């Protein structure tokens, strides 16, 4: 859906054949132009069935259509591009060869980056990379079709990696996250660096991609820098956990204990009535949605789809029942007001609880500052030492030779664009 909204063209997607087992769903998917792909081991004679699907793709491309393919084959929660299947390249080469490589096909790499896969209404960034012209591989295809498919797949894999955050080694993923937490804010605030991007989320994604690439660079060329920095970050995180505070508290100026306690009390008293009503009015369908989702037990990539569908049933039914009950006791306007308040106060209750928890953490930090000021100051000094180490690594990373044509940052402009 996101790719379809971001693309100026009508996109016909390839989708896992398991989505077509439900006759009603299959009818809807086929009417929307979705083409099934069969996984070997899951479907008998999958290869033969896929040939028919490939032929459908070629016919669509011959007519000037656009095919959307997710070449990793499966959805993953990891921030890493999985090994791509060669089906994309094979379809493109077959379609071009049928027109003596005069069709003009291009493969456009796309990256989808989610601010949070687990948070409702989070942001998503869609990035389109430089197109891969299929006809450029005509000579290689005539000599060795399989090698041409592998070459295009390799180029596509590299191109997609440059559109998303790609932590190439799973053992470094937590390290990259810790560097993000501590250093991304520092990069954002540095006056000598200009980070490209129209929105803060886009700039944050750019910085995260560069942090991941820098990590990979040091892992290959100077791994001792990674392990030394990891030890510092581990020690820093242990100190934060011991005190029960977060990194952002050390870098932000916050009011004293009395001011924080006053804000917490005011927030608690003023928002409590609305929050209680929102909690009472929304907790039953919320609980039932969570319980049913766990009971069904889908894999992680389908959790949110299940929550959305199940939640629509539970919340819709509960709201209708509440409005029907209210109509038996109150007038029309009061019933309408109650109906409108159900989702609004539910969202308020959620935000209210989050704000209270956040204020409670700030209250704890304000208390620690007033009672253990020297310890907090030492921790801030330790944080500054870590930032200095990262600044030195940044200078080394920006000064390296960059020969990759997919890199967004040229050597001459690396200082201006991080």
Give unreliable regions as ranges: 408-418
* Number of helical regions: 14
Strands, total number? 7
- Sequence of secondary-structure elements: HEHEHEHEEEEHHHHHHHHHH
Report strand %.
Answer: 5-15%
Radius of gyration: 27 Å
Reported for the largest beta sheet, the result is: 3 strands, parallel
Give the proportion of residues in helices. 55-70%
Output the structural class.
mainly alpha
Order of strands, widest sheet: 2-1-3
Assign an overall shape: flat
Spatial gap, N to C terminus: 33 Å
Task: Look at the structure and give the mean pLDDT.
Answer: 84
What's the short story on this structure?
The chain has 14 helices and seven strands. The protein is mostly helical and 418 residues long.
Descriptive report:
This protein is mainly α and 418 residues long. Helix content is 62%, strand content 6%. The protein contains 14 helices and seven strands. The chain has helices at residues 2-6, 23-31, 46-62, 87-97, 138-143, 145-161, 173-189, 200-221, 223-243, 247-251, 257-296, 303-327, 332-371, 373-398; strands at residues 11-16, 35-37, 66-68, 106-107, 110-114, 124-128, 132-133. The strands form three sheets. Strands 2-1-3 form a three-stranded parallel β-sheet, with helices on one face. A two-stranded antiparallel sheet has the order 4-7. Strand 1, helix 2 (23-31) and strand 2 (35-37) form a beta-alpha-beta unit. The two termini are 33 Å apart.
Notable characteristics:
mainly alpha, 7 strands, 3-stranded parallel β-sheet, 418 residues
Question: Helices and strands in order, then pairings?
Answer:
Blueprint: H1 2-6, E1 11-16, H2 23-31, E2 35-37, H3 46-62, E3 66-68, H4 87-97, E4 106-107, E5 110-114, E6 124-128, E7 132-133, H5 138-143, H6 145-161, H7 173-189, H8 200-221, H9 223-243, H10 247-251, H11 257-296, H12 303-327, H13 332-371, H14 373-398
Parallel strand pairs: 1-2, 1-3
Antiparallel strand pairs: 4-7, 5-6
Helix pairs in contact: 3-4, 4-6, 7-8, 8-9, 9-14, 11-12, 11-13, 12-13, 13-14
